[in-house]
Design goal:
Blueprint lengths: L3 H7 L14 E2 L2 E3 L13 E7 L18 E8 L11 H24 L3 E6 L9 H14 L2 E14 L1 H7 L4 E14 L19 H12 L2 E4 L6 H9 L3 E3 L8 E5 L25 E5 L11 E5 L1 E2 L2 E2 L1 E3 L7
Antiparallel strand pairs: 1-2, 2-9, 3-4, 3-11, 4-12, 5-7, 5-8, 6-7, 6-10, 11-15, 13-14
Helix pairs in contact: 2-6
C-alpha cells in the first residue's frame, strides 16, 4: 500500500466527533443559513431573466434536452445576501460571493496557473485556538507545502451520514471538526502527483512533501480532483461553511499569499450574466402564457411559443416610469 493510500488518506477518518450545541452549532460558531430570516421579502419571486433568441438555441444540452425553439429562463428572487438567513444564504449570499471568488481567481490564474481545490485538515490539538490563530496556522502549513496563495473558506463542521455513523459507531449528523477548503495555486502545480499510481518517498512531489511535513506539523493537506468550474466549487463550499454567530461581518472567505488584496490588484468588473446556450447577455423577461412553474426552480428552458403565440418577451419597461 502506498503512502497516499495509508497515512495520508486516513487522516480524515481520525477526526473524533465533539458534541455540538444544537444542530450545526458549537461555541461561537454555526453553519451558514442557521440564523433568522431577515425580512418578509426574503425568497420572494422578483423577476425572470433569460434569453429569447430561440433561433440560436438549436442545440442539445449534456442532459439530453433539445433546446430548439426554446427560451432559457433564470428566476430571480429577492435576497438579503445575509449568510445567516436560512432563505437567502444559498442562492443569494453564496452565489454572489462565489462570483467574486471566480473573477478574482480567473485574473490570478493568468499569472500563477491552474487553480487547485485543497482541503487543510487541522490537527485536533489546535481545535481550541481562536479563529485568527487557526487561520494563521493553516496559512503557514500551506506556505511550507508551496501553496503560494488563494482563498480560504472556513468549515467548522463535518457531517456523518447514516453509513459513516454505523461504521464509526457515532451519532449521525454534524460534529465539530475545523478545517479549511482552499482554492489556490501550488508552485510547480499538482500535475506530477495527479494520476501517479504510487507515492515514492523523496520524489519531491506535493504528496511527498505533504507526507514529510505532516510528521512534523500534524497538518494534512489533500488536493481534490479537477473541478468542473471554480465558481461552482466555491459556491458549494460556501453554502455549508461556518461563521461566528455574534460577529456581524464575519468573513467566511479570506485571501492569502499572492492573492491577498495587498499583493494582487484586480480591476474586477461585474460578472456578465450570459445565456449558457448561446452566450448572449441575459435580459429581463415577461411571461404571457398560462403555465405555472414549480416553486424552487432556479433556471429552465421552455417553449417560446404556446398555442401559436409568443409568450416570452423582453421587458422593455422603464422602472419607475
Amino acid at each position: 500500500m502506498s503512502l497516499r493510500d495509508s497515512v495520508l488518506e486516513d487522516e480524515f477518518d481520525e477526526d473524533f466527533p465533539v458534541e455540538s450545541e444544537g444542530f450545526g452549532r458549537y461555541g461561537d460558531f454555526e453553519l451558514v443559513g442557521h440564523g433568522k430570516v431577515t425580512n418578509d421579502n426574503c425568497g420572494r419571486f422578483s423577476s425572470y431573466y433569460g434569453c429569447v433568441r430561440a433561433e440560436l438555441h438549436d442545440k442539445v444540452l449534456l442532459s439530453g434536452e433539445n433546446c430548439k425553439g426554446k427560451v432559457y429562463v433564470r428566476v430571480h428572487h429577492h435576497s438579503c445576501n445575509n449568510p445567516r438567513c436560512p432563505v437567502c444564504y444559498k442562492y443569494g449570499w453564496a452565489s454572489r460571493e462565489a462570483g467574486k471568488i471566480e473573477l478574482r481567481l480567473a485574473e490570478a490564474s493568468k499569472r500563477f496557473g491552474l487553480v487547485e481545490h485543497i482541503i487543510v485538515g487541522v490537527p485536533s490539538k489546535f481545535w481550541g485556538l481562536s479563529f485568527e490563530a487557526l487561520r494563521l496556522k493553516a496559512i503557514q502549513a500551506l506556505a511550507v507545502r508551496d501553496v503560494i496563495g488563494g482563498v480560504l473558506i472556513f468549515h467548522g463542521f463535518r457531517y456523518n451520514n447514516a453509513d459513516e455513523a454505523r461504521r464509526k459507531h457515532v451519532l449521525m449528523g454534524w460534529y465539530w471538526s475545523p478545517h479549511f477548503h482552499v482554492l489556490g495555486f501550488i508552485i510547480g502545480g499538482y500535475g506530477k502527483c495527479r494520476g501517479c499510481p504510487k507515492c515514492v518517498k523523496g520524489c519531491g512531489g506535493f504528496v511527498d512533501r505533504n507526507y514529510r511535513l505532516n510528521e512534523s506539523d500534524g497538518f494534512y493537506l489533500k488536493v481534490l480532483g479537477k473541478r468542473k468550474t471554480v465558481g461552482g466549487t466555491a459556491w458549494y463550499q460556501l453554502n455549508h461553511a461556518s461563521i461566528k454567530a455574534k460577529v456581524r461581518r464575519f468573513h467566511v472567505a479570506t485571501w492569502f499569499g499572492v492573492c491577498s488584496y495587498r499583493r494582487l490588484k484586480v480591476k474586477v468588473e461585474r460578472k456578465r450574466n450570459v445565456c449558457p446556450i448561446c452566450e448572449h447577455d441575459l435580459v429581463k423577461l415577461l411571461y404571457h402564457g398560462s403555465k405555472s412553474f414549480k416553486s424552487g426552480m432556479r433556471e429552465f428552458v421552455v417553449d417560446l411559443v404556446e398555442d401559436d403565440r409568443v409568450v416570452w418577451v423582453e421587458d422593455v419597461r422603464r422602472s419607475g416610469g
